[in-house]
Amino acid sequence: MTAPALPAPDPERIAALDGDALHRALHERVEAAWRLCREVHPALPRPRVWLDLRGRSAGQAHFGRGGLRFNPVLLDENRLAFLVEVVPHEMAHWLVHHLEDGPRARPHGREWQTVMRRLFGLAPRTTHRFDTGRASPAPYRYRCACREHGFTARRHALARRGSRYRCRQCAQTLVYCGLATLEKPV
């Protein structure tokens, strides 16, 4: 594997950015990755960029919308790793999809891995290691015989409308206990 093709951002500068400046830095990183991809595929369209992804995913190449989606909470909490790893990961998906056989390629298959290694000079990791606690909160508490479970607002709404959920360990139906108290970090 070669050295990373995109220069690493200055960690101190990235840490000092406010929200708007961090979002601009993300857009600049996407632009740099897109220019690098155009060296091997000149017809590659420029992806649009959204910061509207929620939950545990850090990023998503969304071909139907014509661009890349990123999780603003995970970006803010993992600034340097996000810019260095997530942006090339999603841009590799964007590039592979726009190759001749791209729509038939497996999402993290040989083509994507080759782009990650040879073009971006990065290990082709399929998942991130970010703490997703704040990005994917589960504030609704449910209980069974063996433990407490956290539900998201969507799953809680489904349960309120009659969907029944059972614990995978004890098979007991989960019962609503109330909202969890969100502890603030010290």
Using the CA coordinates, give the radius of gyration: 20 Å
**Overall strand count:** 6
Strand order of the largest sheet: 1-3-2
Main sheet characteristics: 3 strands, mixed
Average pLDDT reading: 90
Can you tell me the overall shape? elongated
Oligomer: single chain
Report the span from N to C terminus: 40 Å
Which regions are unreliable across 5 or more consecutive residues at pLDDT < 50? 182-186
- Counting DSSP H or I runs of 4 or more residues, the number of helices is 6
Query: Order of helices and strands, N to C?
Result: HHEEEHHHEEHE
Strand content: 5-15%
Task: Estimate the helix proportion, in percent.
Answer: 25-40%
Q: What structural class should be given to the helix and strand makeup? A: alpha+beta
Task: Explain the overall architecture.
The structure is a single chain. With 186 residues, this protein is of the alpha+beta class. Helix content is 37%, strand content 13%. It has six helices and six strands. The strands form two sheets. Strands 1-3-2 form a three-stranded mixed sheet. A three-stranded antiparallel sheet has the order 5-4-6. Helix 2 (19-38) runs parallel beside helix 4 (79-97) and helix 4 crosses helix 5 (110-119). The radius of gyration is 20 Å and the shape is elongated.
